[in-house]
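User: Just a sanity check before I run the rest of the batch. Below are the structure tokens for the first item. I only need the designed sequence back.
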């Protein structure tokens, strides 16, 4: 009986592998709009799709990002300035794209732009700290998608949303996981809404990769900034050496955990854009597949102790 089950599992994996190999083709006729192309996944994806022959529209937050990307790509790739948190900027970009794609429509939008700070314990933050990140990581995703959705419907194309494993489980305080849970919810509702229009909506849920999101220097400075603004009462609750302990743990963890092979994520993005039968969700990274996602299905009485096991506890912790 065991061998029959093993054979069935092997057959299903082989069938999925074969089915997912087929590509849509005609890359030179397909426009792909990518946000957050200054660095990291977005930058690498833009250059990768350009080499495959797609007509890439790469949005960057800085002029430097635009200039460097243009130098690294062919003349097919075009860039534009975009601040996903600014409605006027999003609408201006959409107008440019509408003129550029014409009657072909837009084959895909990849919502990749995101930030990881401010991140800290919930009682260190204000509502404004939450709003600043949600404006980029969640509202920005929604705004960009809605601004070009009619163009995607015209092409019967794709919406690719970059969430995170932290959209499935929330091991840290602050707005980051909140924003990614929101992206997951938007992704699910949009996928069901768009099915009858032939539009596929896919979600990328990466684990830890070495990008600006996991940059220890950026995270350390953000924590120190948050700590300096805290009232003395909260500092005493946590202990005046708490920040040093957290920084030490963060440096140790992020020195060994992030994967340096960004193509694992970019490969998933490319498959979501180009496969005839893309997956609904992609979870690149061994930590995502074998730790974070399984942990997200665990009952709370198992997940909480595992997540708190190596956490630096406040001095006045009473648990």
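Assistant: Here's the designed sequence for the first item:
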């Amino acid at each position: 009986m065991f061998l029959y089950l093993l054979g069935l599992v092997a057959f299903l994996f082989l069938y999925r592998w074969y089915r997912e190999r087929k590509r849509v083709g005609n890359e030179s006729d397909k426009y792909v709009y990518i946000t957050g192309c200054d660095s990291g996944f977005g930058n690498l994806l833009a250059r990768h799709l350009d080499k495959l022959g797609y007509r890439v529209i790469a949005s960057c937050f800085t002029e430097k990002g635009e200039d460097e990307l243009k130098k690294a790509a062919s003349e097919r790739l075009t860039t534009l300035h975009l601040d996903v948190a600014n409605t006027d900027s999003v609408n201006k970009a959409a107008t440019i794209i509408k003129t550029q794609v014409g009657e072909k429509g837009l084959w895909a939008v990849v919502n990749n732009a995101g930030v990881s700070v401010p991140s800290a314990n919930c009682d260190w933050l204000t509502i404004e700290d939450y709003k600043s990140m949600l404006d980029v990581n969640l509202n920005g995703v929604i705004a960009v998608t809605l601004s070009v959705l009619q163009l995607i419907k015209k092409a019967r194309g794709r919406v690719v949303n970059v969430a995170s494993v932290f959209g499935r489980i929330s091991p840290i305080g602050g707005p980051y996981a909140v924003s990614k849970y929101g992206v997951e919810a938007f992704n699910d509702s949009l996928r069901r809404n768009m099915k009858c229009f032939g539009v596929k909506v896919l979600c990328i849920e990466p684990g830890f990769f070495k990008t600006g999101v996991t940059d220890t220097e950026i995270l350390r400075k953000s924590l120190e900034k948050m700590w300096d603004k805290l009232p003395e009462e909260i500092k005493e609750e946590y202990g005046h050496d708490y920040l040093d302990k957290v920084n030490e743990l963060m440096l140790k963890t992020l020195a060994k955990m992030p994967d340096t092979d960004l193509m694992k994520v970019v490969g998933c993005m490319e498959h979501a854009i180009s496969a005839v039968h893309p997956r609904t969700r992609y979870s690149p990274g061994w930590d995502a597949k074998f730790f974070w996602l399984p942990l997200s299905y665990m009952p709370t009485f198992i997940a909480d102790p595992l997540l708190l096991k190596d956490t630096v506890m406040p001095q006045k912790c009473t648990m």
